[in-house]
Design a protein that fits this description.
GO molecular function: efflux transmembrane transporter activity
Strand order of the largest sheet: 1-2-3-4
Largest sheet: 4 strands, antiparallel
Strand content: 5-15%
Organism: Rhizobium leguminosarum
Shape: elongated
Number of strands: 4
Oligomer: single chain
Distance between the termini: 91 Å
InterPro entries: MdtP/NodT-like (IPR010131)
Keywords: Signal
Radius of gyration: 37 Å
Protein name: Outer membrane protein TolC
Length: 488
């Protein structure tokens, strides 16, 4: 028989092991979000919020309405701020951060022990003289031994989730900026096409009058009429594209209902006087790209998992069973009770599974993560170089149209007007030169749009938050004269 103190100690041992460690940082609502907000604010200079209750939701909605009311037409910086406050997909990304914090919090807690109690000899007359009560508490010792490694892995994944949330924030900001640029450029194109439409209408009307007098053949009249008809179709197509571009911006800002009445400017800002020099953009990207930091943490977590697999290669389940057994026997009307403590150790014998397959999988996972990190570093350097090259080139192209092509077309139009007034050239030569000038103006608008899109890609190339566009893709976009966006 053992004493009461020893019995309590035997039963309490597994319970003491299964107590929990404080996880205050993980258990706090909004855990990890401050780091996300601070990291993204450095890049965007904007506020972002994690909405977790009705009061916060009402506050964010009121802030969005105030921004819309105060900024008419809507500028690009206000559009980005609204998106960061109101984009629901961004809130879902922050919920994923909270889920990772909960996993890290859970890792700080020990596995609950299993308690079992049983009796024999009760309810059976022939066994009334002999009764046994058994109690057992089971605790997984291996889980205790590897707990620090489990917590380290969970913490690494939590830090990775913070970076993923930051990347999503930067992506929403960059996408909104690009959508605003596309929308405004589209409405600028619509304005130019409307101007061309007015010129074409005048030419068509003049052709009709000259045809009535017999001064213009029917074929020449038809050419002017068909130009008007084609231009009307292009203008309608441009208006549709503009409305769709505005809808893309609306989706990113998370607006609906009465908030859809916002307007954007009808023309993009003029080109800056000079480009920003980024001679060390590769080094900046390697130092600052958040997706590269995520890949590094993935390699760290994989390495920790590899170490955990190695530590548990041979024994995957190791349990300690602590309990007691009390026997009560009645003999000659005297009751005799005897209590004994039990401590057992259970584990699987690795006869068939020696852990080699699990070790091989962990090794391959580590190699995979290491190679993905190396590939990411190479790609980051290339993307940084490509983005800056596109930025510089599109600036030169846009400036060429602004300083050379459009002024020359204007000069041609002015000279054509002089020769027309001097009765040296006819009306349709003047109208043809005017149409050519409008086409050059449209190309100039598209070139300016491509520059601002390339400028918007610089931040994602350095910090992450969106795949940079290839130069060829941007030039294909420039070929479309009906790009959209809208403030009407």
């Amino acid at each position: 028989m053992i004493g009461t103190t020893r019995l309590i100690a035997a039963l309490a041992f597994p319970l003491a092991l299964s107590g929990c460690v404080t996880g205050a940082d993980y258990s706090r609502k909004g855990a990890g979000f401050t780091a996300v907000a601070n990291k993204t604010a450095i890049v965007t200079a904007k506020e972002t919020v994690w909405i977790q209750n009705q009061n916060q939701a009402r506050s964010a909605a009121a802030q969005v309405k105030d921004l819309l009311a105060r900024t008419k037409p809507l500028d690009v910086e206000t559009a980005v701020q609204i998106a960061l406050l109101n984009n629901k997909g961004l809130q879902a990304a922050y919920a994923d951060l909270g889920d990772s914090a909960a996993d890290a919090w859970q890792s700080t807690m020990f596995i609950n022990p299993t308690v079992s109690i049983g009796t024999t000899g009760i309810g059976t007359p022939e066994l009334q003289a002999f009764k046994t009560i058994e109690g057992m508490i089971t605790t997984n010792i291996l889980a205790l031994a590897t707990k620090n490694r489990d917590m380290a892995i969970a913490d690494t994944r939590f830090r990775q989730a913070q970076l993923i949330a930051a990347v999503k924030t930067l992506q929403v900001a960059a996408d909104t900026r690009r959508a605003w640029i596309g929308a405004v450029a589209s409405w600028e194109n619509v304005g130019q096409l409307q101007h061309a439409q007015a010129t074409a209408d005048a030419a068509s009307e003049l052709a009709e009058k000259l045809g009535e007098t017999g001064a213009m053949a029917k074929g020449a009249q038809a050419r002017e009429h068909v130009f008007v008809a084609e231009l009307a179709g292009e203008t309608a197509k441009a208006r549709l594209s503009a409305r769709l571009a505005k809808e893309e911006l609306t989706r990113l800002m998370g607006l609906w209902g009465s908030d859809l009445d916002y307007q954007v400017p009808n023309s993009l800002p003029p080109l800056p006087k000079s480009v920003v020099r980024r001679d060390t953009i590769e080094a900046e990207a390697l130092r600052s790209r958040i997706d590269l930091q995520i890949a590094k943490l993935d390699l760290e977590a994989t390495a920790r998992s590899y170490g955990l697999t190695e530590a548990t290669r041979y024994v995957t389940d190791l349990e300690i069973l602590t309990g007691f057994e009390t026997e009560r026997e009645i003999e000659d009307d005297e009751t005799k009770t005897r209590t004994t403590a039990q401590v057992e150790l259970e584990f699987a014998i690795p006869i068939f599974d020696t852990g080699k397959a699990r070790m091989r999988k962990s090794e391959l996972a580590y190699m995979r993560a290491a190679n993905l990190l190396a590939e990411k570093a190479v790609n980051v350097r290339s993307e940084a170089r490509s983005t800056y090259e596109a930025y510089r080139s599109h600036y030169d192209i846009a400036r060429h149209y602004r300083n050379n092509v459009v002024p020359l077309r204007t000069k041609v139009e002015e000279e054509s007007l002089l020769t027309y007034n001097g009765m040296i050239s006819n009306t349709f030569e003047l109208l043809a030169d005017t149409r050519d000038k409008i086409n050059s103006t449209l190309l100039s608008v598209n070139a300016k749009r491509d520059f601002w899109l390339a400028e918007a890609d610089l931040a994602p190339a350095i910090y992450g938050g969106g795949a940079t566009k290839a130069s060829a893709e941007t030039e294909v976009a420039a070929a479309s004269e009906s790009s959209a966006g809208g403030g009407h």
